[in-house]
């Protein structure tokens, strides 16, 4: 089966990571995937060896070169699966002239983000209306889509998958951890509290720093482990506020750009933390669990399914600095043996449930069904969406 995967860029986001992992695992499962994108400005990832595709020229949404290139990329595919609002919109429009290919739309965020961004909301609903089926990586988003008129049998929950390389990666040795921290200019004698992710309001690094300030105050000045915030600064105001708060609270914290091997940094960290206000299915939580690091997360999106609170990690309510501080205190108070046992339970659990190949086979089963049954496009109804459930 020939599959065209479309996304906006090869930037450092979780959706990009997941699409490349899917392409690799689909190839292992016997399909022929190609990955295309149209924004080269924020290049971070590269196509894995053996995966075809590349950047499409696009100077504006009306660029004829872009539309011709998009048509060429999609017209020979059996399935076109576009992720995120605007790639989904473009693929849906291109798919109006494709009778053979099944166009699917992938939603990769939390409902709160779309509810707060009207333009992306409209693009998502339009993309879904022009698709044969919709996929989401979080059950909360599945429920949101069904509530907006997509028939439940045409919206599918397909979770994030672990990087195949992580599955084959042995637990980090003390030497591995030492090298990872030294390579980033960090003190290997003081494993950090690490938060991976772009710096913006939703990722809530500001709330994390406030929570850490509470922990530091409660410990009566006993120094915390160093804090590492690693990610692209997408909101300059947040970046400035983060730096100001670090100084104000007297925290030993630093901001790094996205790191080349995030799993190595997480494995060398004392705690991996996600403080987000909303998420779909956060990669960083899955990766922290997979490498056996004590993982703290707010209860957003799929996190309650990923983390068994108190067993494989620690979770708390989102947007509550006091609750996050208490969760961090619990993580930091674990003795080394308890922390290692929690990490090992987490590592075994997520590897068993989120292996790349089983999830790729679920994608492939959906693609094959969409092609074989020749589903009609989902269409508009009452200003939102309607799903046609018959075959044509």
* Structural domain count: 2
CATH class of the largest domain: Alpha Beta
Over the alpha carbons, how many angstroms does the gyration radius reach? 21 Å
Order of helices and strands: EHEEHEHEHHEHEHHEHEHEHEHEHEHHH
Average pLDDT confidence is 91
The span between the termini is 21 Å
| Widest sheet, order of strands | 3-2-1-4-5-6-7
CATH H level of the largest domain: which superfamily?
A: Glycogen Phosphorylase B
Low-confidence parts, pLDDT < 50 over ≥5 residues? 382-392
Q: What quaternary form is this?
A: single chain
Structural account:
With 392 residues, the protein is α/β, with parallel strands linked by helices. It folds into 2 domains: 177 residues, Rossmann fold; 190 residues, Rossmann fold, CATH 3.40.50. Helix content is 44%, strand content 15%. The chain has a 7-stranded parallel sheet, sandwiched between helices. Strands 10-9-8-11-12-13 form a 6-stranded parallel sheet, with helices on both faces. The longest helix has 18 residues. The chain starts with a strand and ends in a 20-residue tail after the last helix.
Descriptive tags:
392 residues, alpha/beta, Rossmann fold, 2 domains, 13 strands, disordered C terminus
Short description:
The chain is α/β, with parallel strands linked by helices and 392 residues long.
Spell out the blueprint of helices and strands.
Layout (H helix, E strand, L loop, with lengths): L1 E5 L7 H15 L3 E6 L14 E4 L8 H12 L3 E5 L1 H11 L6 E6 L3 H5 L2 H12 L3 E4 L2 H9 L7 E3 L6 H4 L6 H10 L9 E4 L8 H14 L8 E4 L5 H14 L3 E4 L5 H6 L3 E4 L8 H8 L3 E5 L4 H4 L7 E3 L4 H13 L2 H18 L2 H17 L20
Parallel strand pairs: 1-2, 1-4, 2-3, 4-5, 5-6, 6-7, 8-9, 8-11, 9-10, 11-12, 12-13
